[in-house]
Design brief:
- The chain is built from nine helices and seven strands.
- The protein is of the alpha/beta class.
- It has a seven-stranded mixed sheet, sandwiched between helices.
- Helix 8 runs parallel beside helix 9.
- The two termini are 30 Å apart.
Length: 249
């Protein structure tokens, strides 16, 4: 708990057997109350290992639902468990769980409802081994997104983010894609709803076992990100209507 708030970490997992335990052991359980792992039909023993190391809530999809579909299950379960603050962390050990304490402090003290762990603030991305083409694409996409959606974030593409439960009362993530663009649709919804976003500097590690999408999927993702930002821009102007920005009932 932190300031009387229940803290739950969610791990959207796919073939994370080699890195899961190292990630899990670094979670600061002095403030984290529970962990939820959703295995998106992995081909390895991710789910079995999760149970073995002590994760209480392990959900295994019978069929692969995609990165976005995985997160929908993660957040739904965390909210069902009574989470006040939810931290989404990739179990591939690309991001350190040690940042959970300051991230929770920011949300738990009422400073921001959303916090992103940014690889771009400072020199964490390139120092940690981010491929140059991904770094350049990240910077270009982020610039375009900031212009279109009227924000000043250092990056939109981190897989390490945290939310107060109130965020899920203001946006409807069920309307979002089940693919990788889910993350950007969710941030677009948050910005559209005028929810303020904080960022913290985050070191990162790129290595063989860390999850990463290939060049083709990266291009598809980049085009999806641009589409989301353009729709956001015109929705703000009232030119188009999008299901992403409809208020929850």
């Amino acid at each position: 708990m932190f300031n009387g708030k229940k803290i739950i970490v969610v791990l959207p997992a796919y073939n994370a057997e080699k890195t899961l335990e190292k990630t899990y052991r670094e979670i600061p359980f002095e403030i984290v109350d529970d962990v939820v792992l959703v295995d998106d039909a992995s081909k390895d023993d991710t789910a079995a290992l999760a149970k073995k190391i002590g994760i209480n809530h392990v959900i295994k999809h019978d069929n692969n639902k995609g990165y976005g579909g995985n997160q929908k299950t993660c957040y739904s379960k965390a909210l069902d468990l009574g989470a006040d603050i939810i931290i989404m962390l990739h179990p591939d050990y690309q991001y350190t769980p040690k940042l959970i304490i300051p991230i929770v402090g920011i949300i738990g003290n009422g400073l921001y409802e959303v916090v992103l762990a940014s690889r771009i603030l400072g020199k964490g991305a390139r120092k940690g081994g981010m491929p140059l083409y991904k770094y350049i694409a990240n910077r270009i996409l982020t610039l375009v997104q900031n212009i279109l959606v009227g924000q000043k974030l250092s990056e939109y593409h981190t897989g390490y983010r945290a939310f107060s439960k109130e965020v899920f009362e203001k946006i409807d993530i069920t309307q979002n894609s089940d693919d990788f663009v889910f993350d950007n649709e969710m941030l677009s919804q948050i910005i559209f709803a005028d929810i303020e976003i904080g960022e913290v500097t985050c070191p990162t590690k790129y290595f063989k076992e860390a999850s990463s999408i290939n060049f083709k999927r990266s291009v598809i993702y980049g085009l999806g990100v641009l589409r989301v930002s353009i729709v956001h821009f015109f929705a703000k102007l009232g030119v188009v209507n999008s299901k992403l920005y409809k208020k929850k009932n």
